[in-house]
Amino acid sequence: MTLEDLGKKLAQPDPIRRHAEKELFALQDYQERVKQLELKADRDVLLEAMAETVPHALDGLTGEERNDVY
After folding, report:
1. I want to staple 65 with a disulfide (CB 3.0 to 4.6 A). Which of 53, 56, 60, 61 is the partner?
2. Residues whose CB is less than 8 angstroms from the CB of residue 9 and which lie 6 or more positions away in sequence, other chains included
3. Residues contacting 1, CB < 8 A, separation 6+
4. Do the domain assignments include residue 6?
5. Mean pLDDT confidence for 12-36
6. What is the C-alpha separation between 69 and 62, in angstroms, rounded?
7. Residues 70, 44: Cα–Cα separation, whole Å
8. How far is the C-alpha of 17 from the C-alpha of 2, rounded, in Å?
């Protein structure tokens, strides 16, 4: 095998490598979606807790303190 033949062979895309790269990109995309769903779930839980807590906490505040909260 000449150096030129080797260069041509190395220049050809390897199907196993292409498949591995495709799977890697799919896994990275999946991990990003999971991360976004976790962040959304955390945000929803926080908002729900705040929605339940804030109205009760507002009862004990003065008008000016309520304005500060809003």
Report:
1. 61
2. 1
3. 9
4. no
5. 88
6. 11
7. 19
8. 24
What pLDDT is attached to residue 46? 84
The answer to whether the beta carbons of residues 66 and 56 sit under 8 Å apart is no
Q: Identify whether 5 is part of a domain.
A: no
- What distance in Å separates the CA atoms of residue 26 and residue 18, rounded to the nearest whole number? 12
Rounded CA-CA distance 21/8 in Å is 21
Domain assignment of residue 26, yes or no: yes
pLDDT of residue 29: 92
Domain count, the chain: 1
Domain of residue 32, residue span:
14-69
* pTM exceeds 0.85: no
First to last CA, the chain: 76
